[in-house]
Amino acid sequence: MDVGCGPGLVARLAAVRGYRVIGIDADPQMIRAAKRLAKHQCSSASFKIGDVAGLPVEAAEVVSAASLLAVLEDKVGGLNALWKGVRPGGTLLVIEPTEQMTVENANRVIENGLPRKRIDGLRLWAAARQGRTVDPEMYDTLGAESVRFVPLLHGLVGAWIIQKKGIPYADIFTPAAQDAGVIGAA
Asked: Is residue 146 part of a domain?
């Protein structure tokens, strides 16, 4: 589940890799654009209007949000809503600009050889998100099994991979899970 999906890039990329994915965004125009792009690319990703506060509990093994928390007024509430949507043993993937995301730093990355098709997007992202970062320490408040940081775009952006405690949903139906008493044998 990709929350704050915008035009659906992350959802479409996940669908290409074989994942069943739904993109959710509060903006009806973004959902229309996402559906149009998915149809044009013959993507299996689906999209619906919704917001982070309305996510169902334990709805997905993977919940992603790219550049969402930085624009929310209540960042902690948004993070907790995303976390609520992750099943036990699942993963929350948060991609957000870091303190390094400035127009000046973006221009340096561009000068060092960013592919031409990415230049306008990075400039727009830097201008829109400069000074609108998320305090990474808030990820430590979730009580996660693990929190891993991966720098992207020369550190302008970060990916936080947050693993929820528990047995992954897909593993519940394995013989090993039956032997461990997680579920009864069929």
From this structure: yes
Say which residue the tokens 């654009």 belong to.
Answer: 33
The CB density around residue 184, as the number of other CB atoms within 10 Å, is 6
Say how far residue 52 (Cα) sits from the centre of its chain: 12
How many distinct structural domains can be found in the chain? Answer: 1
The sign of the CA dihedral 20, 56, 143, 74 is positive
Q: Is 156 helix (H, G, I), strand (E, B) or coil?
A: coil
Predicted model pTM? 0.84
CATH code of the domain covering residue 137: 3.40.50.150
Q: How far apart are CA 96 and CA 71, in angstroms?
A: 10
pLDDT tens-digit series, residues 74-119: 999 999 999 999 999 999 999 999 988 888 988 888 888 878 888 8
Measure the CA–CA gap between 109 and 122, rounded to whole angstroms: 9
Q: Say which residues have a Cβ less than 8 Å from residue 181's Cβ, sequence separation at least 6.
A: none
In angstroms, the CA 107 to CA 126 distance is 9
Instruction: State the residue range of the domain holding 138.
Output: 2-97+132-164
Q: What stretches in the chain show pLDDT beneath 50? A: 172-186
Specify if 72 maps to a domain: yes
Give the span between the Cα atoms of 176 and 185, in whole angstroms.
11
Do the Cβ atoms of 102 and 109 come closer than 8 Å?
no
